[in-house]
Amino acid sequence: MTNFKLHLPIRAGVIEVKEITVSEDKRVYQKLSKFGRAYHDKYSGNPVSEIPGVQNACKLFRALGIEPTKHRPSSEAMLRRFLKGKEAYSVNSLVDVSNWCALDFLLPNGVYDRSNIFGNIELRKGRIGESYIGLNNLDVHLKERYALADEQGPFGSPKTDSRRTCVDVDTREIIAIIYAPEDYDPKRLREQCELYSDRLIEFCGGVLESCLILNNQS
To answer: Fewer CB within 10 Å of terminal CB in the chain, N or C?
Structure first.
């Protein structure tokens, strides 16, 4: 089990699953789309800020020093797409499960290939000179931003995650993180982590190794 430390005022659910099989199975995407259309049917035309649960991700971002009206949490950005009658993008079964859960819980998450993570993980502020190549192939500079880092350096941030730890069809073991504000109910977060892992195992197989709920005092 990976050692994970928080140095910022938030709460996190951390899930580790091994022996998974990532595919282009569209069943998960169909569930994601169905969930998104249900949001559209229920809330289209209403202010996004009034939708139950949306403010949790906004509170989380403010605790991380990010203004959510300028940089939308990924969960809210996806919700807004569906409210406008647009669809999300399908990537693979693993990413689609993560997007489905982000939309369901209205909390951002990240999923990482554990075989490319080395040693302990910490969530902290980025240091002077720290950067990595992001999924958009651009340098992501991390000074004074939150950084998810292992013993080789940062591999995740609010802007975009790194190419080093991204998941693909060859991924066999993962670490997934659900981010929540510090005052989020830990029992509810655990239930959501368990639901995330159940969905992942249903559509990607695998064996659950750990499911932890952490805060800054853990």
So the answer is: N
pLDDT band (50, 70, 90) for residue 158: low
Three-state SS at 91: coil
Mean predicted lDDT score pLDDT of the chain: 93
pLDDT band at 190 (very low <50, low <70, confident <90, very high): very high
Starting at the edge strand found earlier in the chain, the sheet holding 173-181 runs 109-113, 173-181, 10-18, 207-215
Q: Kindly report the CA angle at 176 between 15 and 142, in degrees rounded to 5?
A: 135
- pLDDT, average across residues 103-127: 95
* Contact predicate 45/214, CB 8 Å: no
- CATH superfamily, with its number, for domain 4-215: Phenylalanyl-trna Synthetase, Chain B, domain 3 (3.50.40.10)
Question: What count of other Cβ atoms lies within 10 Å of the Cβ of residue 159?
Answer: 16
Alpha helix segments (H runs only) across the chain: 27-43, 54-63, 74-83, 93-105, 186-204
